[in-house]
Amino acid sequence: MANATPLPASAASAPAQSAPCPRPVYAAAAVLLGSFLVGFDTRLFSIGLPDLRGAFGISFDQGAWLSTIATAPQIFIAPAVAWLAATFGVGRVLFWPSLAYALLSLAIPFARGWELIVLLHGLRGLLLGVFIPATIMIIFRNLPIRWWIPALAIYAFRLAFSQSAGVAIVGFYEQYMSWQWVYWQDVLLAPVIGILVRLGTPHENVDFGLLERADWGGMALLGSGWALIYVAVDQGNRLDWLQSGLVLTLLVAGVILVAGFSLNELLVRVPWASHKVIASRNIIGAFIVILCFNVASLSNSMLIPGFLSSVAGLRPEESGWPIFVGTGLPLLAVMPLAVVMIRLFDARLTMLIGFLAFAVAARMGTGITHEWTGWSFLPLLLIQSVGQGFTFLAAVVYILSNSDPKTATAIAAYVQVLRLGGAEISISLMATLLRMREQLHSYLLGLHVTASDTAHALAGFAAPFAGAGGSAHLTQARGVAALAATVSREANVLAYIDAFQVSYWGALAGLLMVALLGAAPRGPLSPRY
């Protein structure tokens, strides 16, 4: 492909299509199930964590560490999966981990003891980090090029669909089944993925040449560095960031390791992930577009569910259905439309439409009040579904259009690392913003209330409790609690308005970055017009 930068002979430069796919339908089904398994497992765990803490009998702090430990191994292993698949074959990399993942998912609900629970979740996260990069490898190594965009649409669809449907699924499990099914669903799904991979991908011999030239140092440095940075950021909100020696140490160590990886790639004879893969203005710009997408899409994945939980006081089974109807179901129509758009027109146009939808939705979100319920968000959710369906898929296709086909697997690994690491860091920073803005608004609300206003408000809040029995002191205390809850509610509403504003700015930044992108060179993924 013209104007593309070839990668040196390394693990990442394995041919995009190593062998014809004997049964492409099975391979496509493996991509579908693998993508959905990762999306739903990550989403179900984060939403169901409060109930899982009660089921496992662990504290809030232990639950926070459990969430971090369940995700950090994904970031550690994700950069190396493309190399593992190129060296050992996609079938080996996915088949055995899928069986191990099913066994772990079966065992975790029976685990007792903090150390054992942490160990099992860490191993489960490590295996989970294999699925998405490996299933993407199936697309580029075994499927015909004409299947690439629809197969990538499956990947982008599961990303958006799981965010919307995950709330409803957790509510269904907790209301009609049991919390164990957050894990046990994978006992059925994971082995099916392994079987489909065996049926749908050709047998591949181990590439001993790649194994001999393995850049173990580069893989260890990048994976460890990203994982440490993620742990620091994920725990930063709870431990007050740089005021914590642990967070500061993890950040410094992570940055040093990533810098060491960059130096390693310059010095080794055969680099594992040469910087030349992304040394293109269009590719770097598209990576920034994905970061903007991570911020803009928080309005759907984090802010609306968070508002309905913390302000409206709804449980997953109550808030899940409006979110699913507003975003999940429309995606069934939006994703095919996005595929058609990308095939007929420049991918940059699809990205522009997606970011414009995010901007409109986020701007609508700045008008929320404490009276909003799940169905109040329906117009906003419908618009967000366009942003979710159009933006990320078009960005990935644009990156591939600007890449050498021989480096497609390496580019896919970079995209996955950026998507996973960038998304988790965006979520952590947004959680910090919400906490700090809630504290600020709570202070400002109290600052502008006089003593007489407070006394009048307390009298009004205490009046309903006067006839409920109890002393005057108890009645007054109940009035104080009701007033404090009202102030906290309004401070939270104002904090979420600020957060929607940040998502709006992220969408505007995305629009600007897309406008600065150049045209991709002509190639197999170019539009047909």
What does this structure look like?
The chain is mainly α and 529 residues long. It has 2 domains: 11-214, Growth Hormone, Chain: A, CATH 1.20.1250.20; 273-529, MFS general substrate transporter like domains (Growth Hormone, Chain: A, Up-down Bundle). Helix content is 78%, strand content 0%. It is built from 17 helices and no strands. α1 packs parallel to α5 and α2 (60-88) runs antiparallel to α3. The longest helix is centred in the last third of the chain and has 45 residues, at 472-516. The chain is globular, with a radius of gyration of 24 Å.
Q: Key features?
A:
2 domains, Growth Hormone, Chain: A, disordered N terminus, mainly alpha
Order of helices and strands: HHHHHHHHHHHHHHHHH
What is the strand tally? 0
User: How does the helix and strand content classify structurally?
Assistant: mainly alpha
Return the average pLDDT rounded to an integer: 83
Q: Specify the CATH homologous superfamily of the largest domain.
A: MFS general substrate transporter like domains
Radius of gyration: 24 Å
CA(first)-CA(last) distance: 19 Å
The residue fraction in helices comes out at over 70%
- As for the number of domains, it is 2
Q: What's the story with the biggest beta sheet?
A: none
Instruction: Tell the overall outline.
Output: globular
CATH architecture of the largest domain: Up-down Bundle
CATH fold name of the largest domain: Growth Hormone, Chain: A
